[in-house]
Amino acid sequence: MSRLARVLPRHAAVLVWVPVLLAAPALEVRSGPGPVVLALGLVALAATSCVVAVLKSWPCSSTVSTAAWVVLTVSVGIGSLAYDGWPPAWLLVAMTAGVTFRPAVALGAITLAVVLATSTLARGGASVEDVYSQAFVVALAGAAAATFSHLVATADALRRTRAQLVVAAVADERERFSRDLHDVLGHTLSVMVVKAQAVRRLVPTDPDAAAVHAADIEQIGRTALTQVRETVHAVRTLTLTEQLEAAHDALTAAGIRADVHTPTSSVDPAVGTPLAWALREGVTNVLRHSSASTCRIDLVRRGTSFELRVCDDGVGTPPPEHEGRIGGLDGLRSRLVAAGGELEVAPGPDGFSLTARVPAALDAATERSR
């Protein structure tokens, strides 16, 4: 949106009054060419300075807008002292101050306009009632213009904030879908590849075992279709118990000895879900990159947190992390951080390790944000 398109709605309450409030000073001078020219010059100067002050005041007052308001005030003051018909122009001075300056400065400027308006009117011999009426009208005009300008600016800010929230919501949903799809299919396809390799190895020597693995591939494929549908509809939830069993089966099928140690007590589902995602990613990396013969999975309670550690004795490492990458270790780290936890990945003395920590108790707000 252009600058002019933003300024005009906010300051329309002032700009529409420029010709109305300056019409009387322009029409009431009939004493000769000289006074008429001077009066029209003051009117033109007042109108121009008012428009400049208003248009240069967005998003806040500047040196130009402040100077223009001063010129407007001086021109109206000179006109009020030299001619009749200028009292309405003081409303324009107060209204311009209300939309040009910040609230604290605007209050002082409107007060100054009230003082000058009543002083010039009293100097011309006006009654006390007229002076009080002028003070009230000028102050009310300035306050009304400032309030209207503030309301329009607030409505504009709310519209822009709503548009930004829509964009952010779409981006968050796209990131969630990409991350879930990567984590779900990445693991499932890795298991299918491992089992397909087992089928190829066993066909010549043990057809019955190869048939069992082939049936597993079929079942995993059907499960993957269900997982994709659940991911699309944002209802995919992992359980730690199921994932521990799946990790053991996948590692065994790949010829990797699985050594799993878990606590005797149950883990709360709110805590188990982020740990299940961590286990899934850790086992996927072992299958893809480690060339390991053994994988140890430890789940322990340490103080107020649960710690899951996946450690292999291989030589492979996960793919390098990239800033802004969706899925993989970056996506897992985002899940754990949203749950109040943390992720550590590092080569250990006997291989590569992935460690995920999650607080033992997650509140409802944290779980919903995950």
Summarize the structure.
By secondary structure, this protein is of the alpha+beta class. The chain folds into two domains: 3-164, no CATH class; 239-370, Histidine kinase-like ATPase, C-terminal domain (Heat Shock Protein 90). 68% of the residues lie in helices and 10% in strands.
Give the CA-based shape: rod-shaped
N-C termini distance: 35 Å
Q: What is the alpha-carbon Rg in Å? A: 38 Å
The tally of beta strands, per DSSP, is: 5
> Could you name the ranges where pLDDT drops below 50 across 5 or more consecutive residues?
363-370
Strand percentage lies at 5-15%
Provide the structure class: alpha+beta
Number of helices: 13
Describe this entry's structure for a reader.
This protein has 370 residues and is α+β, with helices and mostly antiparallel strands. The protein folds into two domains: 3-164, no CATH class; 239-370, Histidine kinase-like ATPase, C-terminal domain (Heat Shock Protein 90, 2-Layer Sandwich), CATH 3.30.565.10. Helices cover 68% and strands 10% of the residues. It has helices at 3-15, 18-21, 23-27, 33-55, 63-82, 89-100, 103-123, 128-202, 207-232, 240-253, 269-290, 328-338, 364-369, and strands at 257-261, 294-302, 305-312, 342-348, 351-359. β1 (257-261), α11 (269-290) and β2 (294-302) form a beta-alpha-beta unit.
